[in-house]
Amino acid sequence: MDEKYDAIILGTGVTECVLSALLSVEGKKVLHIDRNDYYGADCASLNLTQLWQKFRPGQEPPKDIGRDRDYAVDLIAKFMMANGELTKMLVHTDVTRYLEFKQIAGSYVFRDGRVAKVPATEMEAVRSSLMGLFEKRRAKKFFEFLQNWKDDDPATHQGLSLDNDNMTKIFDYFGLEPGTRDFIGHAMALHLEDSYMQRPARETYDRIILYTSSMARYGKSPYIYPLYGLGELPQAFARLSAIYGGTYMLDKPVDEIVVDEETGKFKGVRSGEETVYADLVIGDPSYFRQGVGAADKRKQLVRETAKVVRAICLLKHPIPNTDNTDSTQLIIPQNQVNRKHDIYVAEVSSAQNICAKDIYVAQVSTIVESSTPELELRPGFELLGPIFEKFVTVAPVEEPLEDGKESNIYITRSLDATSHFETLVDDVHSVFERCMGKGLVLKKREEGAQVQE
């Protein structure tokens, strides 16, 4: 392994595999290493045997829930916005030829003690139980205001400014009730908590437009999801990287990040007796927790900002009160259950080719706020009905302490508690720009992702 590479990438999560493909397309010689013997790292999709090995070592999976090969259960549940940035990256890099997507059937929100559908059409909005008659009129005016907004036409601004006025002022102007603000801010704009209310309205405006344009693309819901699970995403980007000369090594332990003792700059990665060299390294935070450098002056590179608790639940029925849909996004806004952070519920089923017929996989996740993480998911569990099997994990949310330009060590961010990919894409743009010294420009292609109705 004396070969020299332009870049070494550690971990085969979605972020790392997207970056690997982008660098390979740029003509960089890339070596991609993962300590696991499967693609996907924290975003992997596991069969039944792998799932039980991970959470119930030594136990056999039940015989009555289908075959091993029927399952591809995501360790982390995430959906893609039909018009979101990750979908654009898939289309622009032509990775869509390796993947097929299915639309998520419905988007729901928990409000006033019950589950309600987030309206997908004007007819649904008129019938929605989320708002009373007068509130529907006010909400209609609010959405018309957003849809008609043109930056260069003051006549569309109604005396408001998206850049100078915060979201509270915009909501107040239209007289929207707290419950309506809740579902707009959390189920449509997908904010994690309520601090967005004090920030300029532009951010929330952009998020709502993304939601409504994604909804308009295929109807029913704004979300799409790859058949056979999220583990297909990193594998598809890995294939693209390989076409451009990228090399992959799975099941390869990473024992040390080697840096120059004088300058602190990255030199290579040691695995056992072998060291491989490159100009820079990109990796997920788990590969950098030990820090770098000599033991007496070891430099820390990552910090933990929060913890996420996630539960994978196997059900023998769809989530109650969601119209018997085969797949669902359900958001419990934080102040509906006296919390600081939202709780996310994502459900998929055999319709997405990830489990046996008549089984449903629901994931419940949130940011940990107490010393009893699993109890914090209870509002989500209570909406699921009887749970056949449950696997709970608590994982750190980590981020780099520096931008990497000095050391040539570029660290990605952990995946958060959200059930969509938009925050990941911001990270891809940021890391690409820092390590390449230029912004990522996506080439325009017209075709969309292949989506089954």
Can you offer a commentary on this structure?
27% of the residues lie in helices and 24% in strands. The chain has 453 residues and is an alpha/beta fold. Among the domains are: 4-56 and 75-100 and 226-304 and 398-452, 3-Layer(bba) Sandwich (FAD/NAD(P)-binding domain); 121-218, Guanine Nucleotide Dissociation Inhibitor, domain 1. The strands form four sheets. Strands 1, 2, 10, 11, 12, 13 and 19 form a seven-stranded mixed beta sheet that branches. A seven-stranded mixed beta sheet has the order 8-7-15-16-17-14-18, with helices on both faces. The longest helix has 17 residues, at 202-218. This is Rab GDP dissociation inhibitor. Belongs to the Rab GDI family. GO terms for molecular function: Rab GDP-dissociation inhibitor activity.
Entry summary:
This protein has 12 helices and 20 strands. It is an alpha/beta fold.
Considering the chains and any ligands shown, give keywords for the structure:
seven-stranded mixed beta sheet, 27% helix, 24% strand, Guanine Nucleotide Dissociation Inhibitor, domain 1, 20 strands, FAD/NAD(P)-binding domain, alpha/beta
Q: By helix and strand content, what is the structural category?
A: alpha/beta
CATH architecture label of the domain at 4-56 and 75-100 and 226-304 and 398-452: 3-Layer(bba) Sandwich
Poorly predicted tracts of residues: none
Summed over residues and divided by their number, the pLDDT gives a mean of 91
Residues in helices, as a percent range = 25-40%
User: How many beta-strand runs?
Assistant: 20
CATH superfamily (homologous) name of the domain at 4-56 and 75-100 and 226-304 and 398-452: FAD/NAD(P)-binding domain
Which percent band covers the strand fraction?
15-25%
CATH fold descriptor of the domain at 4-56 and 75-100 and 226-304 and 398-452 = FAD/NAD(P)-binding domain
- The CATH class name of the domain at 4-56 and 75-100 and 226-304 and 398-452 reads Alpha Beta
Cα(first) to Cα(last) distance is 47 Å
Shape, please?
A: globular
Query: What is the count of DSSP helices, taking H or I runs of 4+ residues?
Result: 12
Query: Largest sheet at a glance?
Result: 7 strands, mixed
Determine Rg (CA atoms, Å): 23 Å
